[in-house]
Fold this protein.
Amino acid sequence: MILEELRKRVYAANVSLPEYGLVKFTWGNVSAIDRELGYVVIKPSGVEYHNLRPDNMVITDLEGKVIEGELNPSSDLMTHSELYKAYPEIGGVVHTHSTEAVGWAQAGRDIPFYGTTHADYFYGGIPVARSLTAGEIHSDYERKTGTVIIETLRERGSSYKVVPGVLVRHHGPFTWGKTPEEAVYHSVVLEEVARMARLTEQLNPKAEEAPTYLLDKHYLRKHGSAAYYGQK
Ligand SMILES: O=C(CO)[C@@H](O)[C@H](O)COP(=O)(O)O
């Protein structure tokens, strides 16, 4: 069985999703990529987390061909694949239907930058990508879901290195990171800042976003200037 170690890590990252309260039933998936082989290790589709094992993770190439595995890969595989192709420095992708983030995605709103918890991991608001057109949905749904994520960051002038997650309208959040573990971390942070932002607006409907100099201070303090200039 190939990629034994990466299988174990992807398995552990997937079973951490319900532990962090990010998923119900099978509403989420984690993958990782081995850049040398060009292979993706991903959660099998429709399998409950308590039935996951390292040996039932599915290995595919970036075009979706199953290299190793008895089960079908997650239905979101081609979205993960598009992100791996577009973002060469990521090593892991997570998709969930976490409740707070889905609320903002269904409302069609970016998650505003209201405070320092947000600033430590996301340089600016967390964008919501446009809905897919009927043609996109019928032609190549999962791949186009990746496309609108990539398009959104490009249109906002944001680097994937400093905004490691996007909401897909009417769907939910996708996050990424250098590793599957970091991608999960960003999913947890995104869900928490989504909840904080909702509470902020409930407590003060006229709440204003935090100033950019606070964003700079916190983001740079944690990630250093190189990551910050990835924004350019
Ligand atoms: O967005 C969806 C379905 O709406 C998917 O993300 C599922 O929630 C998980 O699918 P599998 O990974 O089990 O194929």
